[in-house]
Amino acid sequence: MSTRTAFSPGTVPLRGAAPTDLQARALRDLGRTGRWRPAEALFWLAALASFFFLPDQHLLLTEVVILGLFALSLDLVLGYAGIVSLGHGAFFGLGAYVAGLVSIHLTGEPLTGLLLGGLAAGVLGFATAPLLLLRASDLTRLMVTLGIAMLLYEAANKAAWLTGGADGLQGVWIDPLFGRFEFDLFGTTAYGYALAVTFLLFLIARRIVTSPYGLSLRAIRDNALRANTIGVPVGRRLVAIYTLSALYAGIAGALLAQTTMFVSLDVLAFHRSADVLLVLVLGGVGYLYGGLIGAIVFKLLQDVFSTITPEYWMFWIGLVLVVIVLIGRDRINAAPLALWHRIRGGAK
Amino acid sequence: MKRRDVLVGAMLAATTMATGLPALAGGEPLKVGLILPMSGPFASTGREIEAAAKLYVAEHGAEVAGREIELVVKDDAGVADTTKRLAQELIVRDKAEVIAGFGLTPLALAAAPLATRAKVPEIVMAAATSSITEQSPFVTRTSYTTPQVTSKIAEWAKANGISRVVTLVSDYGPGIDAEKTFAQVFDDLGGEVVDSLRVPLANPDFAPFLQKVADLKPDAVFVFVPSGVGAPFMKQFVERGLDKSGIKLIADGGVTDDDILNSMGDPALVAITGFHYSAAHDSEANKAFVEAFQKANPGMRPNFMAVGGYDGMALLYQALEKTGGDSDGTALIEAMKGLSWESPRGPVSIDPETRDIVQNVYMRRVERGADGELWNVEFETFEAVKDPAKSGS
């Protein structure tokens, strides 16, 4: 319980003289949540190591990272702000299509496409966020998000002149990254690229959720009415985080489009939204790593089972997921620790 | 791929040095990556193709021209970016030298750029959109194209006293392809398409559309729906009494898919369809094929998907024999061009210019056979039909 902090929470306004006890405690708590734990460093080191030591798995790992980023984007709204969504695939798909179209009509430069894909999704998020505030019950939010995703799917299906419709967008080609690293068949550049982008976005997300703003979101999640009465501008905060989350999802979609150099209607399909929710619940909501860990578990299970039995892997994965969720309860990363405690004879 | 060539070269060199033997091109097994929808809504496509491809290998032996054929089956669940990733993994990680399967058009299209980059032949065994073979010089096809069949249905209709037609298709890529092809061919022949109706792909309710057909009183209604949807369509067609109203039902053969035809019951009897394969096709090759298929897979009847998978393997085997076991992608695809053989569906060949399949298109009607089962019985043949969308005929 040291008071040392990794970075100073300078955003807290310190009006007047020396901080009171309360303020000091708040500062300390903020600092604590923002401090890097060894396990986190280990996680990212492992990710980095996988780049160098698992060259055969880069393609699969790229998919894992992209799904992880997508789940992280959902975690921002679901885990931190308590907004349930069954239509997050809309932003993912929009980002993918925009990135694909940019590469065809504008430039093959990857970062431009990534940025524009993210921005487009962010704009859509900003435009649709107010709909979520109108009737702030979970059920209506589920319906609204689902509806928006379906609208977008149908729109992309109908606009075949632009999106290629059911056949998918043809002719996506991404130039080498920074003009140097070609997107190779082995997926090495793609993985490095996806990993770096995800890590950067993770850092930003981490900074945001440990900031006072992030705390206010959690207050809203736990009790929106009370948050409102203590002066948190609930509506504005929710719109902001929803927009940010949409931007993240859009970037994840853009990453997928760029690394696979292909976009089809499937990026907007319902199962994307459902899968990402599943992944997030699997990994644990409300703590950034949940999405990433969930994505790793989900994709690896999928890969292993579908290799063993291409016909019935869905059955096995379903079974395993049910078991994990029933036994694991909360967070998958806490399982080893819980097991350890149990072995030690219920020390805790 | 340059880098891949270097790697392969290095590996071969290392093998040679390690064993002290000359590296034989025909030594190692040849991996064929079979990417199919084995789960999800299109699982039946995957099951039929896998069963047929395995049957071909079982019948003809796993070895051809000194190379052992190894099938690696992967499930893409009908999702295009999964198809692409699996194809990439198969090529890069598993060193597959041929990729095959591809249940739907977007899936085949997703893999096409990879085939070009890695110079690996892509054998399309199911997807039917005309443009697929144009996406890469390494794509070839053993299924069929929608315009190939639809254009002949239109010709047959006009030649048999049908001049006013309403088209009714599922609202998706192949359906719209069929609608356009039919309208164009029928129009050129002097027929009239009175109305073009598009039914939603998911959970269609045909009642309002059938009512409209009944009101318009055409000579015939031309139908293109995915195979699973054919059954409810025909049921409603008969329930509303359209079979007795003098309106003929002509359709793409996918509507009376052999896989499910028998479970459709009597309503299926009204359909006249055009297609490239019927399990009831009258030939020695087909009888042997159907018998062996049903023996290996009790309860299943081979359909057009199965024959596509079977012929895909036939094509690969013959190409390998022609190259003497050389599995270089360019050599293989060159060897495939112009090949012709007797398939269970009848005589087929690969068009050397488009790498697309040339085959007979048959007009069939549904009949109850002596065994009490429903079959698509062929009564008229259009011989050696090319894909009209590409050959310009």
From TrEMBL, chain A:
Regions crossing the membrane: 60-83, 90-108, 114-134, 190-209, 239-265, 277-301, 313-332
GO annotations of cellular component type: plasma membrane
GO molecular function, one term: branched-chain amino acid transmembrane transporter activity
Name of the featured protein: Branched-chain amino acid ABC transporter permease
Pfam families the UniProt entry points to: BPD_transp_2
Classification via InterPro entries: ABC_transp_permease, LivM-like
Presence of keyword Cell membrane: yes
Subcellular location: Cell membrane
Membrane topology: Multi-pass membrane protein
Keyword list, A-Z: Cell membrane, Membrane, Transmembrane, Transmembrane helix
From TrEMBL, chain B:
Alphabetized SUPFAM superfamilies for the sequence: Periplasmic binding protein-like I
All copies of domain Leucine-binding protein, residue ranges: 29-369
Stated name of the protein: ABC transporter substrate-binding protein
Family: Belongs to the leucine-binding protein family.
GO biological process: amino acid transport
Keywords from the UniProt entry: Amino-acid transport, Signal, Transport
Pfam families hit by this protein: Peripla_BP_6
InterPro entries: BCAA_transport (IPR051010), Leu-bd (IPR028081), Leu_Ile_Val-bd (IPR000709), Peripla_BP_I (IPR028082)
Source species: Amaricoccus solimangrovi
Signal peptide: 1-25
